[in-house]
């Protein structure tokens, strides 16, 4: 019987096969680090008197706690400032390469690494961060790990793990012109639920996935974790190789040819069997928006907010009642009639150059609606920011009335100065809409950059077709 892409990468990294139900020992090619989940790992090494085993396979950045304005001034938030200075101290002491705030390669951990060509097909990549699944867009087996595992990888460059189950999600056919990668993943999560991928590595397949750019593939893989999966993967192809060629850490010359020859072997065999298979018809996907407090509570933008009494399943009905109460929405309200206060375009899901180009194309020649308090456009990395400025996108955003910020996680989570105030409602291109995610009492609707931009123009949740 053939093997899946995930099983191939696993097999190629097997240091020792576990026997009698014991976990396997897996070699880890790359560990990405940031200020939030690394301090305990460094402290653990320090207490044990150990050094990192392979310094050149560790790399750190600053993202969660960084301010996105006045970055040359002292951080106004004492806790954030301490997190950042601790990372800087630790990286210096242990010799870990760090791209700190102000560095040209600083950015969200899942954005800066692909841009540098550090993320490559067939690698095992880990980070103390759940959205590490993003890197699976290159055909890497990439997943989030806990703090004690971060310490283990630093010390040994290996991880003890039981094999994941495998799941295929086939997005068959072509997408309508107004459907984006974000709509695809929101529609998938709405279909399979936030626990639908639990314990599995999802491999996204099918024509609609093959037609996506690397930025779009990263958007899809990024949110695998929101379906409960351990990782998401897409088999590498010419789109992947073209993206990587010439990047600072990509192989060169003969090594490039050798690498591509290996990368071309990284695909699921025709006779491989997945533990689970889900089929999606791409032609049925359109702009999608969440109405509730988890990423699975989403609907096409043309729908109405659910009426709990119409939901047969008691658990889902109770969840909908609670979500509607928190979101301050009346059952049956048309999604397109919901007014928002703030628009956030950014995050490791949708803060890449393709996303900024898409938002700018819609905003160009318009101004934000008077009812919108603020529009934040936050590039996922400093390189994305530079690229956008070279293309003049920053001018379009500023003319529109948006705030053009420095790179970081920003309003994706309430861990830095970019927060919503209690009761404030946002449309956000990020990946989580949990209660309080964007600040205490915040209300979040997840959507694509295109829907966020159209909403900023009209003031109520809108798609570009409404303009
Ligand atoms: S942008 Fe959001 S989801 Fe992504 S790494 Fe930062 S906090 Fe996590």
From TrEMBL:
Its EC number is 4.2.1.33. SUPFAM superfamilies: Aconitase iron-sulfur domain. Pathway: Amino-acid biosynthesis; L-leucine biosynthesis; L-leucine from 3-methyl-2-oxobutanoate: step 2/4. Binds 1 [4Fe-4S] cluster per subunit. Transmembrane segments: none annotated. PROSITE patterns: ACONITASE_1, ACONITASE_2. It catalyses: (2R,3S)-3-isopropylmalate = (2S)-2-isopropylmalate. Residues 423-449 are annotated as: Disordered. InterPro entries: 3-IsopropMal_deHydase_lsu, Acnase/IPM_dHydase_lsu_aba_1/3, Acoase/IPM_deHydtase_lsu_aba, Aconitase_4Fe-4S_BS, Aconitase_4Fe-4S_dom, IPM_dehydratase_rel_enz, IPMI_cat. GO terms for molecular function: 3-isopropylmalate dehydratase activity; 4 iron, 4 sulfur cluster binding; metal ion binding. [4Fe-4S] cluster binds at residues 348, 409, 412. GO terms for biological process: L-leucine biosynthetic process. Keywords: 4Fe-4S, Amino-acid biosynthesis, Branched-chain amino acid biosynthesis, Iron, Iron-sulfur, Leucine biosynthesis, Lyase, Metal-binding. Pfam families: Aconitase (PF00330). Residues 7-459 form the Aconitase/3-isopropylmalate dehydratase large subunit alpha/beta/alpha domain. Its cofactor is [4Fe-4S] cluster. Catalyzes the isomerization between 2-isopropylmalate and 3-isopropylmalate, via the formation of 2-isopropylmaleate. PANTHER family: 3-ISOPROPYLMALATE DEHYDRATASE, HOMOACONITASE, MITOCHONDRIAL-RELATED. Heterodimer of LeuC and LeuD. Belongs to the aconitase/IPM isomerase family. LeuC type 1 subfamily. This is 3-isopropylmalate dehydratase large subunit. The gene is leuC.
């Amino acid at each position: 019987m053939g093997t899946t892409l995930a099983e191939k990468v696993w097999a190629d990294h097997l240091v020792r096969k576990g026997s009698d139900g014991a976990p396997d020992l897996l070699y880890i090619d790359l560990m990405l680090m940031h200020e939030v989940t690394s301090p305990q790992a460094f402290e653990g090494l320090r207490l044990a008197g150990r050094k990192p085993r392979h310094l050149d396979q560790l790399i750190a950045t600053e993202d969660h706690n960084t301010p996105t304005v006045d970055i040359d001034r002292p951080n106004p938030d004492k806790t954030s400032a301490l997190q950042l200075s601790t990372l800087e101290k630790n990286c210096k002491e242990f010799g870990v390469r760090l791209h700190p705030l102000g560095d040209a390669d600083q950015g969200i951990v899942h954005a800066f690494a692909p841009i540098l060509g550090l993320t490559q097909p067939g690698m095992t990549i880990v980070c103390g961060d759940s959205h590490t699944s993003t890197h699976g867009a290159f055909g890497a087996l990439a997943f989030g790990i806990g703090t004690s595992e971060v310490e283990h990888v630093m010390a040994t460059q290996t991880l003890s793990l039981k094999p994941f189950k495998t799941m295929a999600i086939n997005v068959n056919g072509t997408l309508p012109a107004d459907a984006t990668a974000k709509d695809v993943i929101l529609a998938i999560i709405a279909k399979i639920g936030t626990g639908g991928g639990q314990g599995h590595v999802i491999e996204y397949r099918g024509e609609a996935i093959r037609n996506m750019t690397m930025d779009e593939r990263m958007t899809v893989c990024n949110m695998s974790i929101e379906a409960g999966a351990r990782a998401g993967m897409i088999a590498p192809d010419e789109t992947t190789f073209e993206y990587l060629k010439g990047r600072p850490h990509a192989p060169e010359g003969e090594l490039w040819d050798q690498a591509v020859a290996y990368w071309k072997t990284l695909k699921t065999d025709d006779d491989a069997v997945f533990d689970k298979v889900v089929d999606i018809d791409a032609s049925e996907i359109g702009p999608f928006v969440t109405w509730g407090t988890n990423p699975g509570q989403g609907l096409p933008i043309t729908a109405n907010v659910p009426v709990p009494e119409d939901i047969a399943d008691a658990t889902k009905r109770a969840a909908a009642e609670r979500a509607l109460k928190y979101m301050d929405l009346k059952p049956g309200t048309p999604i397109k009639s919901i007014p928002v206060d703030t628009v956030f375009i950014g995050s490791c899901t949708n803060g890449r150059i393709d996303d900024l180009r898409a938002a700018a194309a819609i905003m160009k020649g318009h101004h934000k609606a008077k009812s919108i308090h603020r529009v934040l456009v936050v590039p996922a990395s400093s390189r994305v920011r530079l690229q956008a400025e070279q293309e003049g996108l920053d001018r379009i955003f500023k003319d529109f009335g948006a705030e053009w910020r420095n790179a970081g996680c920003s309003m994706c989570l309430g861990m830095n100065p970019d927060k919503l105030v209690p009761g404030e409602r946002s449309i956000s291109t990020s990946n989580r809409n949990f209660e309080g995610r964007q600040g205490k009492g915040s209300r979040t609707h997840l959507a694509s950059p295109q829907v966020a931009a159209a909403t900023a123009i009209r003031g109520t949740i809108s798609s570009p077709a409404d303009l």
